[in-house]
Amino acid sequence: xxxxxxxxxxxxxxxxxxxxxxxxxxxxxxxxxxxxxxxxxxxxxxxxxxxxxxxxxxxxxxxxxxxxxxxxxxxxxxxxxxxxxxxxxxxxxxxxxxxxxxxxxxxxxxxxxxxxxxxxxxxxxxxxxxxxxxxxxxxxxxxxxxxxxxxxxxxxxxxxxxxxxxxxxxxxxxxxxxxxxxxxxxxxxxxxxxxxxxxxxx
Length: 202
Hints:
Layout: E1 22-24, E2 30-32, H1 35-75, H2 81-105, H3 132-153, H4 157-201
Antiparallel strand pairs: 1-2
InterPro entries: Casein_kinase_sb_PP28 (IPR019380), HAP28 (IPR039876)
Pfam families: PP28 (PF10252)
Coiled coil: 168-199
């Protein structure tokens, strides 16, 4: 059977065409003649125009912000570095106070993961609040240390039992040592007596 022969013959270039059919309009811009692409182009143009409007608004706001400090600085005398720093601190404190007021108002909108205060290098060495697990471990260790101090002093029940057992063992050992000593002395006396008897016979 010959390859390619069949009921359906493909025409050359008969595949799908994904390119837009573009035509220049009176302004000289390319416009699609296909209705499907035209609707998409309109959506894209709308999005672009919205983006342009947002950019223009943000630029205007930035310009107004830049103009405001410039005007204020001309009216105010130049501040020293310390004064500027204090002013900045006051502004930051006011901003933080404002943020806390907003948080108090909207209790439902509070983010539990939000960090209210940023840590500085000086805060690293400062004592921090322990977590529940760390606190429990610390309490456990302190209780253990207290117990061992009492145990060494012989005030716990276990220490008293151990000391009683040790005293009993010590007494038994002393009795055994005394018994061995008495036996050794008796043996020595017996040997001495035998020596005397042997010397008397001579």
